[in-house]
């Protein structure tokens, strides 16, 4: 009996790029490229099952064992503190977590800093190391407009090229940590499906 | 096993089997109260996996806590006699916030502790019982072993203390070799030591196949001594015929302030987190001003609830229906007839039922129809 390896891929460009890696090492699943609404795809021949998940949910699927391995951004791992094995840095989807604010802004250290972000835990940890008192405003998207509307003083968000910041008259003030995509594994799956998972990790490593 | 007509869940059955297993090896049941003074946990906070504690005031106004942990209470109450070891087991509910969860849960936990003079045989016995405990749940299990001495000595050699040590420990725990290398560069750890840390954290496999490789990463005598102890314990396990599913994994890093020596974690196929957790905790014992040495483990039975996949086909053997005009005596006789045949019986007036019965009869049909 084939034992399937369940792989959670983040919907979007990163997931597609990651799938291309798996395909190259012989874990392809042609049906995944068909344009339909299915979410789960199997290839019995190589014992692999893929599914698309919201990028921020991938680590949850893996941590709870619904997926054996997954591809996820370091930002998500840092934010949720997932208890998983982080087996490989894929070096793709590179960007950084940064503090940004209006161009030429001077941070007033005399009062509580208002920080808008999708990543409250990362922001809290960063500022607590600086012993800075902050007021976190958790948003779910379009973070860039928060300082423009005076909802916050700064934002903590992912910065890729900086174009969005530039267009909104914002700039990167401080870099918190660099981010890239990681191959993660559920801790228990890693033990019971060790041979298959190690095989995938070694082969992917060979491509990087 | 199940002679009574009671639906026994997998976890309830497991509890009975575990009690049997431990008592056969001469471990005494240890029963204690559900509460402990809150201060007691404050003094030992870092030993607790979850820092959240459910508290309440007792009638005299003293702040009390519902137990988040059992080991601490056992150590506190046990006599540390040098003559005789304490061998106990417990079955208690603990109250804590589970990893990643938001609310308090009541978790059934069983565990076993051995406090006294811990030699190789005793370590073997306790680890063997850990293996047998897992086996009680499923044949598809794994027990990972490690030795705190190995990792601690390596981090000492690398000069990693406090924050640096904490970061490194967490990267080792995640088998994150990229992060380990970054940290090593950041803290100026030399190349050979870096390779040892990366190598050790990446090792995974059956004890036999992995130990040699692990030994090659030893950089000092403390590490070699710890490896020797691991090998000796493994030899005892082999003699007890329970070494087969024992794997080596140095990425298990339980809190080094409390644990010392051999540590282990148990897993069951199909359950995504560890179900068993234990090791030598001499350091904890000494912190609580007790003499001697100790080893023990806990089994988290709450996890097994999800594991039970077989659904019962029927709720009851016979469902007996009666109408308004049926004689109560006749109803009772019909039910009695079924009971005498050893069936479980549900008697009810309405013919509609959400229960699934093997057989449906009405009182008018009479008990002759019982198959």
Outline the fold blueprint.
The complex is a heterodimer of chains A (208) and B (371).
Chain A: E1 5-10, H1 13-24, E2 40-43, E3 48-53, H2 58-63, E4 69-73, H3 74-80, E5 85-89, E6 95-102, E7 113-117, H4 120-129, E8 134-138, H5 145-148, E9 154-159, H6 163-167, E10 170-179, E11 181-185, H7 187-192, H8 194-207
Parallel strand pairs in A: 1-3, 1-4, 7-8, 7-9
Antiparallel strand pairs in A: 2-3, 4-11, 5-11, 6-9, 6-10
Chain B: H1 10-24, E1 28-29, E2 35-37, H2 38-43, E3 55-57, E4 63-66, H3 71-77, E5 86-97, E6 104-116, H4 120-137, E7 141-147, H5 148-157, H6 162-173, H7 177-186, H8 191-202, E8 205-206, H9 207-216, H10 221-239, E9 246-248, E10 262-268, E11 276-280, H11 282-287, E12 293-300, H12 304-307, E13 316-321, H13 328-340, E14 345-348, E15 357-362
Parallel strand pairs in B: 1-5, 7-9, 13-14, 13-15
Antiparallel strand pairs in B: 2-4, 3-4, 5-6, 6-12, 7-10, 8-9, 10-11, 11-12
Helix pairs in contact in B: 1-4, 4-10, 5-8, 5-10, 6-7, 7-8, 9-10
Return the CATH architecture of the largest domain in chain B: 2-Layer Sandwich
Compute the gyration radius of chain A: what is it?
19 Å
Oligomer: heterodimer
Helix content of chain B: 25-40%
What would you note in describing this structure?
- The complex is a heterodimer of chains A (208) and B (371).
- Chain A has 208 residues and is an alpha/beta fold.
- Helices cover 31% and strands 31% of the residues of chain A.
- Chain A has helices at residues 13-24, 58-63, 74-80, 120-129, 145-148, 163-167, 187-192, 194-207, and strands at residues 5-10, 40-43, 48-53, 69-73, 85-89, 95-102, 113-117, 134-138, 154-159, 170-179, 181-185.
- In chain A, the strands form 2 sheets. In chain A, strands 2-3-1-4-11-5 form a 6-stranded mixed β-sheet. In chain A, strands 8-7-9-6-10 form a 5-stranded mixed β-sheet.
- In chain A, a hairpin with a 4-residue loop joins strand 2 and strand 3 (48-53).
- The longest helix of chain A is centred in the last third of the chain and has 14 residues, at 194-207.
- The two termini of chain A are 32 Å apart.
- By secondary structure, chain B is an alpha/beta fold.
- Chain B folds into 2 domains: 3-310, BirA Bifunctional Protein, domain 2 (2-Layer Sandwich); 315-369, no CATH class.
- Chain B has 13 helices and 15 strands.
- In chain B, the strands form 3 sheets. In chain B, strands 1-5-6-12-11-10-7-9-8 form a 9-stranded mixed β-sheet, with helices on both faces.
- In chain B, helix 1 (10-24) runs antiparallel to helix 4 and helix 6 (162-173) runs antiparallel to helix 7 (177-186).
- The A-B interface holds A 63-65, 83-89, 186-192, 194, 198 and B 99-100, 140, 142, 144, 174-176, 178-179, 204-205, 247, 249, 251, 267, 269, 271-274.
